[in-house]
Design a protein that fits this description.
The protein has 14 helices and 22 strands. It has 523 residues and is of the alpha/beta class. Strands 1, 2, 3, 6, 7, 8, 9, 10, 11 and 12 form a 10-stranded mixed sheet that branches. The protein has an 8-stranded mixed sheet with strand order 15-14-13-16-20-18-21-17, sandwiched between helices. Helix 1 (17-28) runs parallel beside helix 2 (48-59). Helix 10 (335-342) links the parallel strand 14 (323-329) and strand 15 (348-353).
Amino acid sequence: MSPKPRVLIGSPVCQKPEILRMFFHSLDHLDSQAADVSYAFVDDNTDALSSQMLRSFAGRFPDRSVIFPGNTERPPYIRDENTHYWNEDLIWKVADYKNRLIDYAKRQHFDALFLVDSDLLLQPDTLAILLNSDKEIVSEIFWTSWQPQSLPAPQVWLSDQYTQYEHAPNEQLSSQEQLIRQMAFYSKLRVPGLYEVGGLGACTLIRRSALEAGVHFGKIKNVSFWGEDRHFCIRAVALGFSLFVDTHRPAFHVYRESDYAEAANWMKQVYGSSPAQTGVPGTPVRRSSACTRPKITLSMIVRNEADKHLSHILSKHREYIDEAVIIDDGSTDHTVEICHELLKGIPLHIVHNETSRFMNEVSLRKQQWQETIRQSPEWILNMDADEVFEDGFAQGVHELLSQEKGEVCCFRLYDMWSETHYREDSYWHAHDVYRPFLLRYHPGHRYIWKEQPLHCGRFPHNIFELPSFLSHYRVKHLGWSTHEIRQEKYERYKRLDPSGLYGWKEQYESILDPQPRLIAWSD
């Protein structure tokens, strides 16, 4: 067995005691089984209590921690409820601190340096996931409202200072098109995965190969971009390294004092305790007791499904669900009767729309959500009427939900082009990423929807602010499995989104490809 990699967790620290207490609580819960962990800090605190807390934490690991003194002669770091205030002196002071940590990691021959800002809270297996990515430079994502009430944004970008949308050289984009592409980038990052980016920072694992090659945070003289992270990223790419962000375990950013309550709730969900709960660090995350299985509420929208897959789908779901909430969006066939027949004996709540709301999908999805949470669900299983889990899920789902510590469970979805084959090509590879289908509902969480009339998502788009986990069970999407269904959907998308504003125009055109690449489904 090969030895564990030696990882140095490094952080420049100028922090309020309340946030620092949360940061150390997070480090205490970081799973270090995948690595031999040491710590290095730069004490730039202006609060004596924060310095004392830092020494106390490091003192618990006398052979594996070091504290470097900060430069107190430079201007202090100021923050308030609006934002954090930076100037050139502060930026390059922090750059110098980070370079000091890089130099220490190189001198001590660490295999990797994990730079973490001291206002971030990490999910326990973050370090293991970053190490398993096998990337020389990779960050874990987090989302921040940089201004009060602004849309949460990731700390990664695609190009330049903070450009977060794809664009070709010299391509001229309207502000609306820029926003659409930016939202597409955000939506991609909400799906758990590993993505190449143009810039990153604040929660970054740097391998020895990159450290030895000369990456650092020093200023590049002929670059005017603001912020030491930009200079680090440009230098890294110039040295031949690609930059990646992992989105499986988003960190929580305690950016302002008004975040404290939400941060405490997040820690209780993720770690089972918050710093205020002294003496009970091992308290488990709230979940169903061992003697009661997790309650699963099926949430579904149906419309004229009688002659499609509904009977098969519901017969599978009834094996493991505890109740069902179904929105009948203006059916004119006997869809509702099938629901009553197949779910007989299971609590069933059906809401009937006299007129279909499908032309404005976000309105329909919000209705589905509100009717579902009205039933006080524990776990919400949000499935379309043409989606079904593979065999074995019914027998394993309750154990899965009982053992995992996350709140959002993601699965791979396969677009079936027939009963026995799924499609895989440049336009059809949904199964390459994991998508959310199961969510543990938290009444106190602020859920936010993606406000667009098509492709708005089945869940609120900010659910990945909650800890997530992956399942090996696969989902069959039968919604493309016959020529008749494909023809119907092709005509619908061409009618609702002729310019590809909300989707992918080339993918729409590929729906009727006479010779798609098909792969046999294997159980």
